[in-house]
Amino acid sequence: MSIEREDLMICPARVTLDAAQMAFFDGLPTKAPSVQAELGCELEQGHEGSHAALGQQVDTTMWWIQWTLSASEINPYTWCPATHLPDTERRDDKDCALFNGHPGSHSSAKRSWQASEAA
């Protein structure tokens, strides 16, 4: 197993979702895989502000879990508009995989279930 360079630059923070948060995700109308109870921050290591992990995507809305040492919440966002190729028709590994307005660098980490949902 190889370690991608980008993996070394991702924040190591983790969060465990509570029962109410899991129930929220279970109630969303989507065909995406079920949400894991423990998620890792997807932002750049050393980022400003709260940590963030994608919980679920429903149509054009992405539900992100954001947390600090004292609290966590679920917030709706749209995709970050940054892309390496202009005028792309679908999201792929060349588009930023984070939410619009995220702190730090853009991430081009591809999520396989997002690509299959977009197809």
Write up what this structure looks like:
This protein is of the alpha+beta class and 119 residues long. It has one domain (6-118). Helices cover 13% and strands 23% of the residues. It has two helices and five strands. The strands form two sheets. Strands 3-4-5 form a three-stranded antiparallel beta sheet, with no helix packed on it. Residues 1-7 and 110-119 have low confidence and may be disordered. Residues 92-119 are annotated as: Disordered. Residues 105-119 have a biased composition (Polar residues).
Task: Offer a concise description of the structure.
This protein is an alpha+beta fold and 119 residues long.
Main sheet overview? 3 strands, antiparallel
What spatial order of strands do you see in the largest sheet?
3-4-5
Q: Percent range for helical residues?
A: 10-25%
The class by helix and strand makeup works out as: alpha+beta
Number of individual domains: 1
Cα-atom radius of gyration: 14 Å
Average pLDDT: 78
Total number of beta strands: 5
% residues in beta strands:
15-25%
Along the chain, the helix and strand elements come as: EHEEEEH
Number of contiguous helices = 2
Which of globular, elongated, flat, extended, rod-shaped describes the shape? Answer: globular
Which parts are unreliable, with pLDDT below 50 for 5 consecutive residues or more? 1-7, 110-119
N- to C-terminal separation?
Answer: 28 Å
Give the SSE map:
Elements: E1 14-16, H1 19-26, E2 38-40, E3 51-58, E4 61-67, E5 72-77, H2 112-118
Antiparallel strand pairs: 1-2, 3-4, 4-5
